[in-house]
Amino acid sequence: MKSVLAIDLGATSGRAVLHHIEEGKLISKEICRFSNQPMKERGFLCWNMEDLFSHILDAIKQANSLSDLQSVGIDTWGVDFALLDDKGQLISSPVHYRDNRTKGVLEEVAQISSLSELYFKTGNQLMEINTLFQLLRAKSKSPDSYFKARNLLMIPDYFNYLLTGKKVIERSIASTMQLVNPFTKTWNNEILEMFEVSEALFPPLVDEGLILGDVLEKYKVGTPSVITVCEHDTASAITAIPTEDEKTLFISSGTWSLIGTELPYPIINEQSLKHNFTNEAGYGGTTTFLKNCTGLWIVEEIKRSYEAQGKDFNFDEIVEMVQAVTEPVALIDTDSREFSEPGQMIEKIQAYAKQSGQLVPKTSGEIFKVAYTSLAYKYHQVIEDLEDILGYSFTNLHLIGGGSKSTYFSQLIADVTQKTVITGLIEATSIGNALVQFIALEELASIKEARALVKQSIQFKNYYPNNKEVDDGTLS
């Protein structure tokens, strides 16, 4: 049985899924799942790369023992990076995007370039966590590490380098950096010069679907090929959406909420700047036009806060508590800075409600309902902004990722947005990762054939606004 291994590293956990094609359907089997816990190093919040790589090697070893493993692909979150010295060694653990070292950096950047000019040159949503801004703070806060660096690799590219010895950066992950020309999808030399970032730091940019080489024999886990998939997890997820309609609206719902559409070209104008939409690279030279918003991180943080109090709620219990709250609750701006930082999420929500003159939530059901309802209304607002920019509206909304597992949340989104919500692609990222590998291995002829395979393989469900209809059948 020929198979491919998709390794999907998220901000809080990682998973490895084995995929093969059998009788015209995609068959997927999760072989391991593991925690991704940050650590403190040198006073910064950092990623534990040694631990993550050990899980990657273990996953490859397991996959190789279970099947005829042809290849492996790795996708991760965006913006974060590893710096290597002149011997190709990691200088220090990569800093986590949630570390506060970039707090206030946009004001500093505005002294060098107007923020609107920066947006028009890169097409990237202006967020303090973007790679460019992290590099500027690395230079000022960790000069010994920064000036020792000879190469920069994004997180999945670093793991690919460890596996094969090859240094490249794939375009979709590069497009999160605020360092790429959104039209040519090449390094933006004008930005590099403006911010005095050496071009020598960056290896070649490559497309998805490049076979880098085999896993090095020294690891003794087998020698499957390593393929550059769409390495930004959002781009991988979108690759899996099986739609023949060019007007595709999606929400990738996980720790982050990414709301947008797939286009043949970037959109960079006053409207997209006003609404802070980003242009990132997707499969086959497409542009993923989206807004990156805080997502179920808020719910996860509330859950952790209650666990610290000895109240370990599972998600079924949370939904029961939320549905028992029949009165309207306060709404928060889920993108307000305090909600993106860890800790004291319950108190932050209560303080926001009080300061904004709303009813302060007290019970656990009320607290969780504030989070879910506020996220749904944020989605509604962002979709309205997107439709305003594009000049047309959407009927259907593809809800993909972990958030789509919740029937309560899916129906809430349908009710608030007044869109038909289509779910089923819970593991969209892993599936998109695998599809690119199958295309590279010539097991699938094209992205059109790959998406048709998904349509034949997944059971989809539709949620209609105000629960007017129920459809557990095929994708509309």
Care to describe what's here?
The chain has 476 residues and is an alpha/beta fold. It has 2 domains: 2-233, Nucleotidyltransferase, domain 5; 243-424 and 445-476, 2-Layer Sandwich (Nucleotidyltransferase, domain 5). The chain has 17 helices and 20 strands. The strands form 5 sheets. An 8-stranded mixed beta sheet has the order 15-16-14-13-17-18-19-20, sandwiched between helices. Strand 17, helix 15 and strand 18 (420-423) form a beta-alpha-beta unit. Helix 9 packs across helix 16 and helix 11 (297-308) runs antiparallel to helix 14. The longest helix has 27 residues, at 364-390. The radius of gyration is 22 Å and the shape is globular. Residues 470-476 have low confidence and may be disordered.
**How many DSSP H or I helices?**
17
Taking all Cα atoms into account, the compactness measure Rg is: 22 Å
User: Roughly what fraction of the amino acids lie in strands?
Assistant: 15-25%
Count of β-strands: 20
| CATH homology superfamily name of the largest domain | ATPase, nucleotide binding domain
Q: Tell me the number of structural domains.
A: 2
Helix fraction bin: 25-40%
Secondary structural class: alpha/beta
Proper CATH architecture of the largest domain: 2-Layer Sandwich
Terminal-residue CA separation: 32 Å
**What top-tier CATH class of the largest domain fits best?**
Alpha Beta
Major β-sheet profile: 8 strands, mixed
**Strands ordered across the widest β-sheet:** 15-16-14-13-17-18-19-20
Annotation keywords:
Nucleotidyltransferase, domain 5, 22% strand, 476 residues, single chain, globular, alpha/beta, 37% helix
